[in-house]
Specification:
Length: 150
């Protein structure tokens, strides 16, 4: 099952989870709201978008594959990649979390957590294996120095 998920790009997985959250929110409303705040949620979305785009821009600058199943041509370790090995995933998760904070509904919080679980258990191990195979000790040194998330 997990290898089949690699066929889907993470933004599409995020959109699917949001669609499921909307469907559940509309068809099975809960009698209470979780934490909700439009200003904080908007801020979290904006920060997440910025983090995601910083990672994306560096991949474009280094002319390496953005698709998780593509073959990277270089190991990107500068910019935002000095602080997190997965800024694009972290950004998407943050945007999902920001949406959950705005809506305040349990299905939206579950969507954010589900995205993080799928990325951490399917995509990250696949990418780590691929990067280690391609870049060897350079990747291992980078991996030892920089955390996956923060």
């Amino acid at each position: 099952m997990s290898s089949k998920l690699l066929a889907f790009r993470p933004p599409r997985i995020a959109l699917f989870l949001v669609a499921v959250a909307v469907l559940l929110h509309l068809t099975m409303p809960l009698p209470f709201e979780l934490f909700t705040n439009i200003y904080l949620g908007s801020l979290v979305i904006a920060i997440g978008f910025g983090v995601m785009m910083a990672g994306w821009w560096l991949f474009r600058k280094h002319r390496t594959a953005i698709c998780p199943t593509g073959t990277p041509s270089s190991l990107v370790v500068d910019g935002i990649y000095r602080f997190t090995r997965s800024p694009m995933y972290l950004g998407i998760f943050s945007m999902l979390l920001g949406l959950a904070i705005i809506v305040g509904s349990l299905p939206f919080y579950f969507a954010a957590v589900a995205f993080l679980i799928v990325i951490d258990t399917v995509f990250c191990p696949y990418e780590d294996e691929n990067l280690q195979r391609l870049f060897g000790d350079d990747f291992l040194r980078y991996k030892a120095r920089v955390r996956r998330w923060l």
